[in-house]
Amino acid sequence: MGIGCQRGTSQELIEAAIAHVLRENQLSQNAIAGIATIDSKADEVGLVELCREKKWLIRTFTAEILCNISVPNSSQLIHKHIKTPSVAEAAALCAAESKYLLVPKQIFRCAINNQKGTVTVAIAQVKYK
After folding, report:
1. Strand bridging mode 34-38 / 57-61
2. DSSP codes of every residue in 67-120
3. How far is CA 59 from the centre of its chain?
4. DSSP letter at 31?
5. Alpha-carbon distance 38 to 21, whole Å?
6. Helix (H) or strand (E) holding 66
7. Cα distance between residue 45 and residue 11, in whole Å
8. Residues 6-34: pLDDT tens digits?
9. Are 120 and 87 in contact (CB under 8 A)?
10. pLDDT at residue 121 greater than cutoff 70
11. What is the CA radius of gyration of the chain?
């Protein structure tokens, strides 16, 4: 599962975004092999704590790597700020070593307990050999 989020996004909001995307796509949380994101989010407290709590592996990729991944929903705004047109979709595809997104990016904006933030979620499926 690829995740992109604003700096300082709470664990609660990230978890709510993931739950929403899983529910909307009739997918089980048990199928999550791990979380993938850009390397600048390696210390994002909400994301790190969620992965620790759920025992999910977190993999990070540089903007240079993510920039070279073909995605269906690139963003010039994201590219302007972090030097790659995709985080969630590109990271999901990199981590799954796949060219197929099971769920393209879904942007989740919400305020939970007065904590605002934006979380982007994309899901790629690992092909079993």
Report:
1. parallel
2. HTS--SS--HHHHHHHSSS-SHHHHHHHHHT-S-EEEEEEEEEEEETTEEEEEE
3. 10
4. G
5. 20
6. helix 63-67
7. 7
8. 999 999 999 999 999 999 999 999 989 99
9. yes
10. yes
11. 13
CB neighbourhood size of 4 (10 A): 27
User: Cα separation of 10 and 70, whole Å?
Assistant: 29
Is the domain spanning 2-124 CATH 3.30.300.20? The answer is: no
Phi-psi region of 109 (alpha: psi -120 to 50; beta: other; left: phi over 0): beta
> Going by C-beta distance under 8 Å and a sequence separation of 6 or more, which residues neighbour residue 32?
1, 18, 54, 56
pTM over 0.85: yes
| Amino acid letter for position 46 | G
Q: What is the spatial order of strands in the sheet that 2-5 belongs to?
A: 57-61, 34-38, 2-5, 115-124, 101-112
Rounded Cα gap, residues 59 and 67, in angstroms? 16
**Every domain of the chain and the residues it spans:** 2-124
CA distances from 64 to 23, 25, 40, 75, 91 (A): 32, 30, 12, 15, 12
